[in-house]
Structures are given as C-alpha cells and as structure tokens.
Write a structure and sequence with these properties.
This protein has 245 residues and is α/β, with parallel strands linked by helices. Helix content is 38%, strand content 24%. The strands form two sheets. The protein has a six-stranded mixed sheet, with helices on both faces. It has a four-stranded antiparallel sheet with strand order 2-1-4-5, covered by helices on one side.
Length: 245
C-alpha cells in the first residue's frame, strides 16, 4: 500500500476548476517533483493536501486512513503529518531565526521550550545556519531565510514535506543553498512533494516526476522518461522550452 494515495482529487476557485481528477500514489521516502506550465494546478495540489483549499471530489489517504477535509479533527491529524514551505519565506520579521523555528512547536504543539530550542538549534545547523540563531530575517540573505523556513517546517516533525517553488524568489547564486538542503533531506529519507522549475535539480533528486496541465496529470514516471523521453506532444513542447533556458 502506498504511503500517500490521491484518488480523483478535484477542486475549484469559485467557478474555476483548478484540479481535475488528480490521482497519484506516493511511497514513503519518495521525492515526487511536480512540473508544468503556470496555472497547471501544481501549487493548488499542495494547498489542497494541507487543507488550505477544500477538495470538491476525490479522496486522499495517508497510510490507508482517509483524510476527511470536512472534519476538523481529521484535518488536524493530517496537518500533523504534513508541513509546507511556500515560495515566500513568511518569516516573522520581529523574531530571530531561532524563535521563528520554535514558535509553532512551543505555542501550537505546547511542547517544552528548552527541548524545542535544542531541536531548533540542531535543525538550523542541519540547514547550514549554525551561528545564525540570533539573526533577524532582515539580517539574512534570501537563501538563508528560505532555509530558516525549511527548518521551521521540519520543527513540526512532518512525515511529508511539501515544497512550493522554494527557489523561485531567490537570486540565482542563492538557489544552490536551498537545493543542497533538499538533497540532504532526500538522503535522510524524507518523503517530499516538490513543485519546481529547476529541471536539472528535478532530474537529479526526484524518484518520480509528475507533469500537470490545466489541473490534470498528463504524464507520470521516472525523470529519465518524463524529462528526456516524453510520451505526449504537450510535454515535449514544455521540456523543449524549459531546457533551452
């Protein structure tokens, strides 16, 4: 049985469909990269999984248990297993890097602050920010802020990490700082769904690549097949344009 199963998932913004019967199966420890043109539903898929947009149809199952997005208790239980990192860092500007990482575990999860702080320091060190615990966001580069955001997500002890274009707001020279962190998490066995336009990175880290267009999954497969030997004209056109840049 797959760790995460998405079956016929559909969602809309108002009257505009944004996901159309999306189905995927994701094993524990897999890194699934979602690619596609703007407006294809990539980011919306992540938002639906964490309950920021309620699905209209379909089913999501975690470890065989169905997530009921209409139930607060079921959604809360699912959110305990997911963590999401957005394109924008969304750090609290009046808090240090350490406090940004510890605030949710101490206030939302009500865990003991000394224990959480020790874990947060270890997480900041893991993402290459040892010595930056007392720095405020405006004292950090964009790449460093995004790594704080990743450490903040990891502090929630998720089983699945959702990464939504986490390098797209960064200057090119800062991108590798964040990509190195994702490589580390992959090597540690973290299950991840990564929305990205960094095709070389997708080809390197993904175990599975999902190509979406207009809210639908068009192709799914290993990177060597999806990126280098696409089966559909739409994916061939997409990769030809992306790989030229």
């Amino acid at each position: 049985m797959s760790f995460l199963t998405i079956d016929g998932l559909s969602a809309s913004y108002g009257r505009t469909p944004v996901l159309r019967e999306v189905s995927l199966s994701i094993d524990r420890g897999a890194v699934v990269s979602v690619i596609g043109p703007s407006g294809s539903g990539k980011s919306t898929l992540l938002r639906v999984l964490v309950g920021l947009l309620r699905p209209e149809a379909g089913k999501v199952s975690l470890d065989g248990a169905t997530v009921d997005y209409a139930s607060r208790a079921s959604l809360r239980a699912a959110r305990d297993r997911f963590a999401i990192v957005f394109q924008q860092y969304n750090l609290f500007q009046n808090m240090t890097a350490l406090r940004n990482v510890t605030i949710a575990p101490t206030i939302v999860k009500r865990r003991a602050r000394p224990v959480v702080e020790a874990e947060a320091r270890a997480l900041l060190a893991k993402v290459g920010l040892a010595g930056k615990e007392d720095a405020y966001p405006d004292e950090l580069s964009g790449g460093q802020q995004q790594r704080v955001a990743i450490a903040r997500a990891l502090a929630l002890r998720p089983e699945i990490l959702l990464l939504d274009e986490v390098t797209s707001a960064l200057d090119p020279e800062l991108v590798n700082e964040v990509l190195d962190t994702i490589r580390l998490l992959r090597d540690e066995g973290m299950t991840m769904i990564v929305v990205s336009h960094e095709m070389a990175f997708v080809r390197e880290v993904a175990s599975t690549v999902v190509f979406m267009v207009q809210g639908r999954v068009v192709e799914v497969g290993p990177p060597v097949q999806v990126i280098e030997a696409p089966r559909t004209d739409r994916l061939r056109s997409f990769t030809a344009k992306i790989l030229r840049h």
